[in-house]
Amino acid sequence: MSIRAPRKGENYELSVDLNSEYRDKRKDAIKRVIASMTVGKDVSGLFPDVLKNMQTDDLEQKKLVYLYLMNYAKTQPELVILAVNTFVKDSEDPNPLVRALSIRTMGCLRAERIIDYLCDPLNRALKDENPYVRKTAALCVAKLYDLKPSLVIDNGFLSRLHEMIADSNPMVVANTIAALTDIHKTASTAHPPLPSSDPAIFNITPHILNKILIALNECTEWGRVAVLDALSRYITQDEKESEHICERVVPQFQHVNGSVVLAAVKVIMIHMRGIRREEVTKQFVRKMAPPLVTLLSSPPEVQWVALRNINLLLQKRPDLLSNEMRVFFCKYNDPLYVKVEKLDIMVRLANDNNVDALLSELKEYASEVDVDFVRKSIRAIGQTAISIESSAERCVNVLLDLIGTRISYVVQEAVVVMKDIFRKYPSTYEGVIPTLCANLEELDEPEAKASLIWIIGEYAEKIDNADELLGTFVDTFTEESYQVQLQTLTAVVKLFLKKPDSSQGIVQRVLDTATKDCDSPDVRDRAYIYWRLLSTDPGAAKAVVLAHRPPISIPRTTVSPVLLEELLGEISSLASVYHKPAETFIGHGRIGAEAVQRKGAELSDDHTFAQKAFRTVVAGQQAENLLDFDDAPAQEEPSGLAATRILPSTPAAANILSGTSTNPLDDLVSIFGGMSASSPHAGASETAGFDGVGIGDGALSKSGDTMSPPLGSVGSGSGFADPVTPYTGHKPQEDLLGLF
């Protein structure tokens, strides 16, 4: 007969102590259970033993047991029923703290088996004589509505909540408003949508407004946030009411809690829309500035949230902090994310009066050790030059000083910024070009190389050795990034158009390399287009490549006006921090970035879209191949609206237009197939399209399996022979990919 080893282990020891006859030992065991639960250990097996210690007069022990129950109620729903009697008994306890604790815990358990047992205690708690119990019960109604809305409505809890808005205690009013607002948000997203008369929809009336405003100054800080959130939803009746609300909310700017301050700013920004008197609006804007500046003395995380909200406010009200530039200067111990936001705001606040101080500060930042921050500081100098024309020369001088440091990443970022300044002020600062070209060897980043190449191409006629400078990039053309290849190609063509006599060789070389050795379709396509332009009509080439470009500018807002108005109504929330609508990152109906861009735009009806689609089909069928250089005129065929009248003659098209199509994809395929077969020159275009990469007249010569433009001798006109060498020996059936 084997002797069974005694059970050992931490949970076993806890179980023994939980069943001890000594009260202190049981309480100590409960504390150890909670400690284990807090660090992630599984102590759900002790559920029955902990439950036995629920009936006690010790309030601390009761709180610990309730905490354990809330954590494990979902995993042990059948055992939670055993605690119902104790909950109901505690809800009638003489001590209001115990009554409130039982109601709060029952609301947090979220176990469907005890929901029905919660109704009677909750009904008593909503009418309790103690305000602490009533304010706890108000929030419990919102939790119950989230679990089972019908139960809340059937028991009249919503009606009771509406009555509690008139409660004499401001904290009860604040919690009631918070509960009704939460229920309102849940109900307003219901499908199908509820009518406005439904009790779950919280409509704030002028009568309710007065009670809310009275409670605002007397409740706790988080109660004020709930009240201010409700005030932001209120739709004012007239201008006088908007002014009244703003005046009552302004004192909240002095609150020590940043959340209250931002919530008050949100209410003011929303209700200022209804104020037409400019002097009143300016008065409220002036009062907003000091509390926002005060938020910048908070910890870094709070600072960042404040800065993101300030960024939005400045996009709407640029004059809000126009005299407060210095408070946004970066400190040595600021985290990078705070410094970046401050840089953006400083550029927004820049004007003729403070630009000197700003440039001095940005120049100091450019000597920091953080490379990312240095780059963003240099870009801020460029943004300042573009936005304030009178400061451009000073900005250029600062950039030249930075280039003189010969620090690689500083020089490269400065070159990129100079390119933007040249685009804003063409032919103004040409004297700095030699300095930029002298640093050519310092550049190893694609964006910096592309920027300098653009500058060389744009001012090729004023740079004596432009062909030599571009030649270094042509020599390493296939090794460069696509961005540099595209810019090199365009710059060399600009050079040829400006100096045709001395640059024929380099332009032939770059076109040959781009069309034969480059593996990027974008670079090849651009080279083919330039080739054709130069070989057929140099005048057209000059008009396209050397066309006048409008100067660039920095937009005042980073989001659309419609979205900005929406985000201003969401200040102090995640939406205002992300600068995105809430539906893009929360909830089951998350939408993409494309839907954000379409926000506020009206969509056309389906029939209009069908008409547009068919016009596109016709245009696509009749458009010549991009690589088809056949100059023979095509036969006249109907296009645009005329084509949409011919298309419905086919059954498939008629089905789609009428909305009776059962398989739109098959119908569209049949439309394409039918049009291709009926086209009078379908066979010819197909053959031409596959005979030499769609080169009707043969713009490319073919040798073996590789294609290269026949860079003939420099002839009359543009200096290019038109590369028209028909190739007819190729079989139409050969796969197009085989040509490459």
Describe this structure in words.
A hairpin with a 2-residue loop joins strand 1 and strand 2 (about 705-710). This protein has a two-stranded antiparallel ribbon. Mean pLDDT is about 80; it is low at about 1-5, about 600-605, about 620-645, about 675-720 and about 720-740. The chain has helices spanning about 10-20, 25-40, 45-50, 60-70, 75-80, 85-90, 95-110, 115-125, 130-145, 150-155, 155-165, 170-190, 205-215, 220-235, 240-250, 260-270, 280-295, 300-315, 335-350, 355-365, 370-385, 390-405, 410-425, 435-440, 445-460, 465-475, 480-500, 505-515, 520-535, 540-545, 560-570, 575-580, 595, 605-620, 640-645, 650-660, 665-680, 680-690, and strands spanning about 700-705, 705-710. The chain contains 38 helices and two strands. With about 750 residues, it is mainly alpha-helical. The protein is elongated and about 105 Å long.
| Counted beta strands | 2
Q: Which value, in Å, is the CA radius of gyration? A: 37 Å
Strands side by side in the biggest sheet = 1-2
Structural class: mainly alpha
Average pLDDT score: 79
Unreliable stretches (pLDDT < 50, length at least 5) are 1-6, 599-606, 621-646, 675-719, 721-740
SS summary, helix count = 38
Main sheet overview = 2 strands, antiparallel
**Proportion of beta-strand residues:** under 5%
Categorize the overall geometry. elongated
Share of helix among residues? Answer: 55-70%
Distance between the termini: 85 Å
